[in-house]
Amino acid sequence: MKKFLYLWVFVMAVGCSNDDGPPPPPEGATLLFPLESSECTTGVSINEDLSQVTFEWMPAKNVDLFTLTVINLNTNTPQAITSASTSVALSIEKGAPFSWSVTSSNNRSDISATSDNWLFYNAGSQTTYAPFPAQVITPKPGSTVLMNSTNEVVLKWLGGDVEDNIVQYEVFFSEQNPPTESLTLTNEIEERTVSVISETTYYWKIITTDNEGNTSDSGVFDFKVL
Question: I need a labelling partner for 26 at 20 to 30 A (CA). Which of 64, 68, 91, 150 fits?
């Protein structure tokens, strides 16, 4: 009986020592091309409106599949395609601003990892480009937030421009949709503190202007204050 017990303990110990634990999560991809805040001129023309651009990123560990997501920032229309490769060719609109990112996943884990989000213009016939529509950092669209001790919330965003010549952000903020109150800032400031009231929903957007008078509209975002 003791021999059997010792054998059982030995088998269990060996079994436990071979337990590898949960599968390793996938790593996030490092983006390569199109470059951040750039004009992409390498696309292959398909017709008057479209060109085919090849998106590229670095290999990442523990990844079975990559999902490329490309968003037309003029229309907020996304395209997504999944591939085991580290490059994907996609047909996109000429002369339009885009954001792109890559999500890594594997078949052994429920966890995924997302790369940085890069902006670029797909080359068109124009010789000058409007700024990229400002990207919201906080509050996240549709979120519920706490105001600080002085009944304020900080609005933060990220601007960008191929030619690096932004001169002004104009923030519209109010309880109405679309927002009506205008708050003008210089190009060096990408945040604004606003007074708020609890249990209220607010709407805001950002108009970005460059030194040639080109503008872009971020679209309207909303958040609720507890």
Answer: 91
Strands 65-72 and 97-105: antiparallel
Parent domain of 116:
31-122
Looking at 87, 122, 157, which one is the last position of a domain? Answer: 122
> Whole-angstrom Cα distance, residue 218 to residue 46?
29
Q: How many domains does the chain have?
A: 2
Rounded alpha-carbon distances, angstroms, from residue 58 to 27, 67, 104: 11, 13, 11
pLDDT-derived band of residue 17, with 50, 70 and 90 as boundaries?
very low
* Cα distances (angstroms) measured from residue 55 to each of 27, 105, 193: 18, 18, 37
Side chain identity at 197, as an amino acid letter? Answer: I
- At 141, which CATH number? 2.60.40.10
Question: pLDDT for 113-134, tens place per residue?
Answer: 999 999 999 999 877 899 999 9
- Reported as a single tens digit per residue, the pLDDT across 189-204 is 899 999 999 999 999 9
User: Same domain, yes or no, for 110 and 169?
Assistant: no
d(CA 163, CA 19): 55
CA distance 97 to 172: 22
